[in-house]
Amino acid sequence: MSQLPNCPQCASVYTYEDRGLFVCPECGHEWSEADVAETGLVVKDANGNLLQEGDSVTIIKDLKVKGATGPLKQGTKVKNIRLVEGDHNIDCKIDGFGAMSLKSEFVKKI
């Protein structure tokens, strides 16, 4: 028996296959093997929620930024994120601050 992939939406291990699609009984998400192959990059927030391109997130702690006059405050909302490879795996633009790269461990999905 082959190993079925975890749900990309909620990371549940209780997935099953139905008519060529994978289905998650916990959140109801359906996806195909091609969807998994396309998105190869898996990024999770501080709570373990899977992040996707275009999601909105909130910063969970004050972050010092080199060269800036002040820190990014806890609770700052960031819209329309882009996922990238590397240590700082979120690229975004923050209103009033500019373009930034963030680590996913310091954000939570809204």
UniProtKB/TrEMBL annotation:
A Pfam family hit: YjdM
Organism: Enterococcus diestrammenae
Family membership: Belongs to the YjdM family.
NCBIfam families for the chain: phnA
Sequence ranges assigned to domain Protein YjdM C-terminal in this UniProt record: 43-109
Name assigned to this protein: PhnA protein
Residues covered by the Protein YjdM N-terminal domain: 3-32
Gene3D superfamilies assigned to the protein according to its UniProt record, in alphabetical order: 2.20.25.10, SH3 Domains
PANTHER family assigned: PROTEIN YJDM, PROTEIN YJDM-RELATED
Lineage: Bacteria, Bacillati, Bacillota, Bacilli, Lactobacillales
Top-level taxon: Bacteria
